[in-house]
Amino acid sequence: MKRSIVVCWYAAVLSAMFFVQAVQAVQAVQAGGAEATKAPVEIGSVNMPALRRAVEDLSASYPDRYGAKGYLARLAGFERQLPEILKGVAAGQAANLLAFRQEALLANPLLDFDKLLVVKRGGKGRNLGLPQNWQGNACLPRKGYDDEVAVLSRVSPGGALTTCFKPASPRFVGDVELHFDAGRMMFSMPDDKNRWQVFEVGVDASTGLADAGSLKRVTPGESADIDNYDPCYLPDGRGIYASTACMQGVPCVQGGSYGANLFLLGRAGGVRQLCFDQD
After folding, report:
1. What does the pLDDT read at residue 7?
2. Strand 160-165 vs strand 209-217: parallel, antiparallel, or unpaired?
3. Residue 60, pLDDT score
4. Strand-by-strand arrangement of the 148-153 sheet
5. Distance (Å, rounded) from C-alpha 129 to C-alpha 143?
6. What is the mean pLDDT of residues 126-141?
7. Given a cut of 80, is residue 125 above it in pLDDT?
């Protein structure tokens, strides 16, 4: 389970990063002129030592499925040309190096799947929904979002994004947790009282589309001053989520931020507090 979570997180980070780069590259080519000269500037984002470590590790871990594709030899060629690339005198090689980095990292055999569930945030929304490291969702603005859960297919910058689930009104959607059988998912979203709650919706595993009619809140919503968020499925059919029901503040900010504790969500909907941490 841990390995699957790491792989999905890694895939999401790479896909988002390279998708943005691909869009920027296309825009530069379309704009022409001075915009087309930005590729050498983007080379500054390429960490060559880290890229080599990644390619070496993948080649050693998967000699047949990855190492045999010759990425190490191609990387060595770019390393030899790097001084000229940085000076802008190696025509076309800056764009080639960016394309190689994308190809070499996304060729990771652990990313060999067709669809990736992502959160599409932005659009008309002005908030990114990113709390500070000592905070939870309870500290985020309740409004200013226009989010949706989408499916990226193929898992590449050129892949298509298809809406899986979008709230009936503009809201935050995040902390997405896909069930083991891919037939349903939980996520965090403000309810009609503007409190964070965990919702669940059915998903057609063959199409990746959610059944909006099956949407339901799975955490207690009676209290007007409690936030519940960040769910996780358990193999035995139960779930875990974070909640501010403990009514504790974070000491290092003089209690100005709500702290959350973990709660167990039973199969029939009952809940039980699991831990009693201060922050």
Report:
1. 37
2. unpaired
3. 96
4. 116-120, 148-153, 160-165
5. 10
6. 88
7. no
